[in-house]
Amino acid sequence: MDNSHQLHLNLFNGQLIPRIGLGTWQCTPDEVKEAVNAALEAGYRHIDTAYLYQNEAAIGEVIQEWINSGKLKRQELFITTKLPFTGNKPEKVEHFLKLSLENLKLDYVDLYLIHFPIGFRGEDDHDLFPRDENGRLILDFDSNMITLWKAMETQVEAGRAKAIGLSNFNSHQIERIVQTSRIKPANLQVEMHAYFQQKRLRAYCKKHDIVVCAYGPLGSKGRVDLSARFGPQVPDVLDDPVVAEIANAHMKTSAQVLLRHLIQLKVVVIPKSVSQSRIRENYEVFDFVLTANEMEKLSQLDKNNRTFIFDEYDGVPDHPEYPFIIPY
Ligand SMILES: NC(=O)C1=CN([C@@H]2O[C@H](COP(=O)(O)OP(=O)(O)OC[C@H]3O[C@@H](n4cnc5c(N)ncnc54)[C@H](OP(=O)(O)O)[C@@H]3O)[C@@H](O)[C@H]2O)C=CC1
Ligand SMILES: O=C1CO[C@H](CO)[C@@H](O)[C@@H]1O
Predict the structure, then answer these.
(1) Looking at the whole model, is its pTM more than 0.80?
(2) Is 115 in the pocket of ligand 2 (CB under 6 A)?
(3) Residue by residue, what is the 3-state secondary structure of 275-319?
C-alpha cells in the first residue's frame, strides 16, 4: 500500500520518524537559528544535527523558545544528533551524548547515531580532528564496533536516546552489529539522491527493518570542489533535465521532485537550507504523487555517483574499516 502521504514512518518500538527533517551541516549558529525557526513555522518537526556541526547549542535555544512559549511540546519534535568521530570508544558514548543533550537543552534525543565507523583518537572534547606532531590525523585502529554499539544500547536503557542507529556504515559493518545487538539499529543515515540511489543497501535495510535516511538528498550542491573526480562538468542532480521535465508536469520544482522520489521509496530526507523560501519549498512535497512511470524514469538516473568519500580526512580511505571499498 502506498502510504507516501503520511508524514511519518515507523522507526522503533512504536516510535515514529517524520519523513522530512531539516539538515543543518555547515550552518553557523546564527544561520541555524533562523533556519530552525523557519522550518518549525513551515511545519517541520524533525531536525538533524551532530556534535561535529557545532551548532547544537543554537538549535537548542530555538527549541527551548518554542517549548517555553507553549507553541510546541517536546514530544512533537524529533531530534537527531550524532556521536563525533572522537567519541567512537564505549567509554566515551555517554559523555558525548550528555554534552549533546546539554547543548540541545534536552533530556533525551529521539535518535542518536554513530556518525562514522572510524574513530579518531583525541582527549579534548573540542578538538574534533586531533592531529599528531606531523600534522596527520590520529586515527583509531583498535576500535570495536560491537562494544561501541553496546554503549549505544545503554543510552536507550538510560532514557537518553529513544532510538539508536548508524551513519556511513556499509552492509557488512551493519550486519556485524545486527548479529550481536540487543537493540537493533533503527536507522541508517547515508548519502542518497537520484544520482546515487543505493538500491542494494536499501534492500538490505528493508530486510532488517532499518529505516533509511538520505543525507545530501539534493546532491549537496557546491559543498566541495568535485572537479578533480568528475571533471569540469560536475553532475548536478538539481539541473537534471529529466527531473526538470517531471517537475514541470506537476508544477513543482526539481528539488521537490528529488525529495518526493526518495519519500516514495520510503526513505527519510533531511535537506539542508538556510533560505526561508527553500525551507518552505522543500516541505511542500506531500501534495503530489509521482506516477510509476516517473518513478521508473528517476530510477534510471542512478549513476552510482558517491560524492561523500571522506577523503578530506587524511588516512581515512586507507583504514581497514573504511566503509566505501565494497559496493554497498
Ligand atoms: N551523516 C553524515 O555523515 C552526513 C549528514 N548530512 C546531513 O544531511 C543534511 C543534508 O545534506 P547536505 O550535504 O546539507 O546537502 P543537501 O543535498 O541537503 O543540499 C544542500 C544544498 O542545496 C541547497 N538547497 C536547499 N534547498 C534547495 C532548493 N529547494 N533548491 C535549490 N537548492 C537548494 C542549499 O542551499 P541553501 O542553504 O542556500 O538553500 C545547499 O547548498 C546535512 O545538512 C546534514 O544534516 C550531510 C552530510 C553527511
Ligand atoms: O556530517 C558530515 C558532513 O559530511 C562531512 C564529510 O564531508 C563530514 O565531516 C560530516 O560527517
Answers:
(1) yes
(2) yes
(3) CHHHHHHHHCCCCCCCCHHHHHHHHCCCCCCCCCCCCCCCCHHHC
